[in-house]
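Structure in, sequence out. Go:
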């Protein structure tokens, strides 16, 4: 099965590239809009930068991250219809014992940004109670950037380790799925906040990028075969 997962991961690499191309095009389309919220984006990016620097220079809230990490595993188990028997959390790591496992459950903490999502939900709930706080959107975006920054700082730091989550289904397969899922998440977030193009157009562009990338790959591979395989007798 690991060989099959490796082949699947390699087959997804052109799709990962195509998704990155679609994301860059979507960002350029959003930034070219005269009404693009530069100040809001700067606050969010500034928070992300602050988190990155703090991660490198200050003590890391590892226990808080481990809690969110294990809760993401547990949430994936519940969404899969399973039962969580125990959840253990410590600064050096944690563990979830459940009645089932899958690639989705194993890789959920690297695909589902739990703390950023909870922060956004909390902000929306606060606005329902105190609508006047909408005027503090920029400070919230800075804080949200910090939360996102810490999430990805811990994630990237784990990618270079022998994290057991990556070894269960193969490191290459796991990293490929994580990168692809996060690129698709970024596309969803960019479109949701800025909506630079209609949703149907975005989906069609993404599909065309995938189709073009794979067709170019097939064209290159067939040319390689014609070049190096001996001609028929």
């Amino acid at each position: 099965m690991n060989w099959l997962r490796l082949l699947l991961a390699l087959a997804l690499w052109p799709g990962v590239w195509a998704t990155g191309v679609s994301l860059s095009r979507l960002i350029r389309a959003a930034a070219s809009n005269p009404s693009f919220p530069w100040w809001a984006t700067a606050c969010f990016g500034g928070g992300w930068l602050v988190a990155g620097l703090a991660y490198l220079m200050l003590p890391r809230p590892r226990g808080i991250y481990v809690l969110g990490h294990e809760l993401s595993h547990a949430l994936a188990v519940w969404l899969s219809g399973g039962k969580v028997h125990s959840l253990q959390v410590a600064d050096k790591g944690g563990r979830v014992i459940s009645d089932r496992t899958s690639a989705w459950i194993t890789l959920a903490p690297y695909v589902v940004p739990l703390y950023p999502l909870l922060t956004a939900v909390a902000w929306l709930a606060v606005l329902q109670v105190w609508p006047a706080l909408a005027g503090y959107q920029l400070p919230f975006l800075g804080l949200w950037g910090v939360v996102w920054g810490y999430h990805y700082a811990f994630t990237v730091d784990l990618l270079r380790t022998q994290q057991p989550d990556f070894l269960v289904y193969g490191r290459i397969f796991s990293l490929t799925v994580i990168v692809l899922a996060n690129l698709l998440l970024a596309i969803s977030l960019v479109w949701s906040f800025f909506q630079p193009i209609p949703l149907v157009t975005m989906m069609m562009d993404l599909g065309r990028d995938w189709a073009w990338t794979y067709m170019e790959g097939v064209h290159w591979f067939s040319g390689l075969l014609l070049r190096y395989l001996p001609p028929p007798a």
